[in-house]
Amino acid sequence: MFPLGNKGLRIGILGMTEGNGHPYSWSAMFNNYRKDEMETCGFPVIPRYLEKQAPETFGIPGAWITCVCCTGYAGREEAEHIARAAQIPTVYDHPEEMIGNVDAVIVATDVGDEHVERCRPFVEAGIPMFIDKPLVNKEEDLQTFVRWRKEGAKFISSSSLRYCKEIEPYYKNHYELGKLMYICSPMAKYYETYGIHALERMYPLLGPGFVSVQNTGTKEKTVVHIKHESGCDVHIVQAPGLNTCGMMVLGDKGSLQMRSGDSYYCFKRQLDLFVHWLRTGEEPFPFEETVELMKLVIGGIRSREEAGRIVMLDEIKAE
What we know:
The protein has nine helices and 14 strands. The protein is of the alpha/beta class.
């Protein structure tokens, strides 16, 4: 019965996709980790930010990653390495083997095209999930998740950059900036996978009410212009290897350049809130925000594929 209350939580983690080491780092945040094994995880940044943390920051009371399964990009060998590095007792060959042995699942993969099929067994089994960003990047998949939600499925999804400790305080209090007029939120990598980081980092500053999205770039170099009903314009530029400078926010009374350098804090807060949701049913933010963010992802891809056409958000149907 959801929410799960104060019981000990057995959480399974699914992975991996190319370039995404979350099964390593997120599992370590629950279970702590073995330094020698983590050093060879293939993601050099992970052991560097883990080693900066005080020992007491590891762990979430009463919750553990108890099993891991890798399908698709990686398989059994990678899952066994994750298990050694993050002290996970059980490795499965098939995700469905987790059913009956876990209380919740983390879908730690960042390819939105795969999430419907990765999540379907757990939706059908009634197992609550945290789904890595982006939830989807196709209109029909968004409609599937919205339908599942209406049918009672329990899941949440977000970008960790919503929880940047340098930015988070401004979400509810940025009066010194006055009326927000312009935001530039650059990001590395590709819009399909990392565009949601740029989007969700700025979204709480403006809240619901995005009107249109236009992508005049290419897959290798994203150039997105987004309009909000408040009159604020947002630009997102992206490219593999882009050395970004945080987020720039301009109002009619002041401006800020916000930088974030603590990946551990972002991820750990995201996971803490996931466990809080499992125990209480209290969502970190309304699901309607996730739906609107996914429309921005879908609209940005659609605009690029249609020669930079301005895509109105209301043309993307969630149901």
